[in-house]
Amino acid sequence: GVCDSSRIIASCPERHLLEQIQSLGCRTSYENGDVLREAQTVFIAVKPPVMPEVLASISSFVQERHLMVSLAMGVRIRDMESALPQKCRVIRVMPNTPCLVQEGASVFARGTSATAEDGQLVRSLLSSVGICEEAEDEEMLDAVTGLSGSGPGYVFMMIEALADGAVQQGMPRDMSYRLAAQTLLGAAKMVLETKRHPGSLKDDVCSPGGSTIEGVYQLEKLGLRAALIEAVAAGTAKSRSK
């Protein structure tokens, strides 16, 4: 990995979560201040409503050496900077749950005092669990939330629906889930590795008068494309309203 687990310290009020972290070889504490005293790069992974309380509790521990990285959806950089000491280096990240299996998609934005080197550090750390890109400005993170942040939920629904379709046609459910998931995984890998337009790859599969183009016709008729566009728009709007 990019960082030995013995160099990581985490804090949390819940014992069972600390025990899980300890099992990875990391040090733990119930006190946020202990983390600030030892760490230089601090990831804040809390629910958005809790963020003001957390920032207030750690502000007195933050020093010039600290880089503060927020994973809280919708918490703006300006709000973090105003709650922390002046010129505090802040980076805001929008990750997604596939980070848990090293296939995440994360995007970050730098605050007013965060340096290019800070950005490179965050990119290096998050690239160990997937891909990581820097947004041109923080406002783009709302669209990132609507696409890759919320996207796993949309894709899980697609996998479930595809599997249900196969079950309806007589396929065993376990097999249908495996095939549906692998199909989406394989198709995604083709887009990333070939760098070809998804429409071009789709055309390759659609033989004239074949079964795939018939299925594509039904998806177009029933509005799959528009539904997905609207889902991203709705997720983006919700993030902007935070």
Helix-strand topology string: EHEHEHEHEEHEHHHHHH
Broad shape? elongated
The spatial strand order of the largest sheet comes to 3-4-5-6-7
Second-tier CATH architecture of the largest domain: 3-Layer(aba) Sandwich
Major sheet attributes: 5 strands, mixed
Structural domain tally: 2
Mean pLDDT: 96
Strand content: 5-15%
Radius of gyration, CA atoms, in whole angstroms: 21 Å
Number of strands: 7
CATH topology of the largest domain: Rossmann fold
- Helix and strand content put the structural class at alpha/beta
Protein name: Pyrroline-5-carboxylate reductase
Binding site for NADPH: 32
EC number: 1.5.1.2
Domain Pyrroline-5-carboxylate reductase catalytic N-terminal: 10-73
Description:
With 242 residues, the protein is of the alpha/beta class. 53% of the residues lie in helices and 13% in strands. The chain has two domains: 31-137, Rossmann fold, CATH 3.40.50; 150-241, ProC C-terminal domain-like fold. The strands form two sheets. Strands 3-4-5-6-7 form a five-stranded mixed sheet, sandwiched between helices. Helix 6 packs across helix 11 and helix 7 (151-168) crosses helix 8 (173-194). The longest helix has 22 residues, at 173-194. The mean pLDDT is 96. NADPH binds at residue 32. It is an enzyme of class 1 (oxidoreductase).
List the helices and strands and how they pair.
Elements: E1 9-11, H1 15-22, E2 27-29, H2 32-38, E3 41-44, H3 51-58, E4 67-70, H4 77-83, E5 89-94, E6 104-110, H5 116-126, E7 130-134, H6 140-149, H7 151-168, H8 173-194, H9 198-205, H10 211-222, H11 224-240
Parallel strand pairs: 1-2, 3-4, 4-5, 6-7
Antiparallel strand pairs: 5-6
Helix pairs in contact: 6-11, 7-8
